[in-house]
Amino acid sequence: MKVNAVRVYVNSSSENLQYPVLFVVRQQKGVLSWQVPLIFRGLYQRTYNYQEVSRTLCPSEPAPDTGPSDQIIFVDVASMAPFNIAYELLVTRLESFQLKTNKPFNFTASPSQPQYFLYKFPQDVDSVIIKVVSDAVYPCSVVSVQDIVCPVYDLDHNVEFNGVYQSMTKQAAITVQRKDFPGEQFFVVFVIKPEDYACGGSVPSSIHGKLCWETDFVGLSGLWSKSVYIQAMLFSFLSFLSFYMGSVVVAINKNSLLVSLYPQRFLTLQSRFSLYPVCFLFSSCFAPDESSSSGGRQLSSPEHGPPAGSDTDSSVEEESDFDTMPEIESDKNVIRTKVFLYLSDLSRKDRRIVSKKYKIYFWNIITIAVFYALPVIQLVITYQTVVNVTGNQDICYYNFLCAHPLGVLSAFNNILSNVGHMLLGFLFLLIVLRRDILHRRAMEMKDVYTLDYGIPKHFGLFYAMGIALMMEGVLSACYHVCPNYSNFQFDTSFMYMIAGLCMLKLYQTRHPDINASAYSAYASFAVVICLAVLGVVFGKNDMWFWVIFSLIHVLASLALSTQIYYMGRFKMGKVHLCFLLFSLVSFLQDRMVLLIVGNLVNWSFAIFGLVYRPRDFASYILGIFICNLLLYLAFYIIMKIRSSEKLLPIPLFCIVATAVVWAAALYFFFQTLSSWEETPAESREKNRSCILLGFFDDHDVWHFLSAAALFFSFLVLLTLDDDLDTVRRDKIPVF
Description:
The protein has helices at residues 226-261, 263-273, 276-282, 332-335, 351-390, 412-416, 419-444, 448-452, 460-481, 493-510, 518-538, 543-565, 577-585, 590-612, 617-642, 649-669, 680-684, 698-719, and strands at 6-12, 21-27, 30-36, 38-41, 47-50, 52-56, 74-78, 87-93, 106-109, 115-120, 127-134, 141-146, 164-168, 171-177, 185-192, 208-209, 215-224. Helices cover 44% and strands 14% of the residues. It has three domains: 6-224, Jelly Rolls, CATH 2.60.120; 353-538 and 621-731, no CATH class; 541-614, no CATH class. Helix 7 (419-444) runs antiparallel to helix 9, helix 9 packs antiparallel against helix 10 (493-510) and helix 12 (543-565) packs antiparallel against helix 14 (590-612). The chain has a four-stranded antiparallel β-sheet with strand order 9-17-11-14. The protein has a four-stranded antiparallel β-sheet with strand order 10-15-12-13. By secondary structure, the protein is α+β, with helices and mostly antiparallel strands.
């Protein structure tokens, strides 16, 4: 049944603010009143006067049994002016009052002539998105969705009293669910603000003015049902569970080949390890090149190395600041200033002590994650509650053109797309756990290849990387509950830690005895996060902040380079002669080349920041971390090839997959869909429609691809040196 709506238009030529013309409209469900000239107040008490006013009266709802009913309307006109005032009054019936699904609708509005329309849910539709588009950047407008009640709040000073609302310039979108409206219908209200300052426009120069903007809107309604949510969730989980299935398939094929080649040996190790299911599911129980000319690994005798005990053996003393090595040829300063270093020179400490040192990374990041995540979750729940209670959708910076609500969550799609970080982080932990268990068993058997060959196996940093990947998913999901200026750091904090842990792991590979302690590393990450917060708060216009930050950046690069160059043995005020000689004879060594290039890159970043002062400071710091990580990884791979070391098929595949997936992920990352650095209305100008399954937007695809890219990156670090498992440590160069 058609809904009847009436609109009243009035116009007065009088500009006398002392004697306005008063209009009162009385109808069955309420009273509506206004004056002409109509006065609006803006920023700094600026006033705006309008001679023309039109309002839509609250419509009468047709009864199911009697149909449309007649309604009597009384219009009272009055003025206290001692002279005659001319006015015009026009009452018209609105023929196009009800919005239709997927049917464009054009209309005009101004600050003194707001508009609202009715929308009814079609059958079998659970959610609908109201899209509003304007050809002009300004005026600043407010779009509100209100329940069917009278009076309708359609003025600048009361539009925020009921329902949900957004400010807009060029476009806006509000997602509405059927469950929120028992009557299965609602009003869509459009209010034009008298000035543009609230939406990011300039402040008007005049105090008084007869300003009247008009704008054209196009109302569209896109809709979906529950099946879209089910398809999206199935796609998300099955996509990443396929990584688990791929691991199983690779393991089955690899183990089948090993069983056929070495059946007796496989059964022997199976019986001694009692880990056949773990080996069978994840990967080979053997090193890639263990089938060397010796025909297989031999168990070592006691003289081949120290007795292998548990990594958590309480009898092992903690590492001190000095080594009690009686022989001068074993002194750290002598060993680490050799012109050519080999892995055996930097893996002399007791394995159990070093392993315990790296396990602190894992336990510390667990503690950090718990204490960081709990207040974050509490805060974003509060934000979401405020949005739901007040209806103010300017609090959160979503991509409203592709925001699918679920329950109390306003953008469930942005949260669901982070499931990949958690699933792939857990899968990486399982793979690391498998390697860790096999290594422990081999150490208990005193396998000579485990004791004296290959890169020393320490898994604490790998565990920390897996936890960091999972926490990145958790905190990114928390951030996307309500993205805004106040919680931006939730989305990037663990990205800094992931990049830092990867660099530490890459350095630890060839320098197991001299890597940074967990306490120093996490303290450094804390400083970086503090700088990121300060940069967002002060970095936009404060030149002094950029000067101080650039200076800190350069000095930190030099200090870190010094520690790396001197293998952790450099101390201020105590420069040994051997260090000076070392500098002369190794100036052209590859490590020095890396440090020179690294410092040039970091100084370039510092100069760029000082000159251009990028607005997105958090992404700027993350770019510094990623560039340094990529530089170090490229150097490592180049040096590995120069040292005649091999790239086995699995790490080679992971390197290619990492490059391809990262390239695709970064493409979607730079498709900016919102920006908390701007006003909510300006941010909505960047909003775009969904691109995947009608449910996920570009940023969701970034979440999917970045999770896979990080997983492959971790696998590169995990498997890169598998070819060295049959090479003695005194033959493995340090670089």
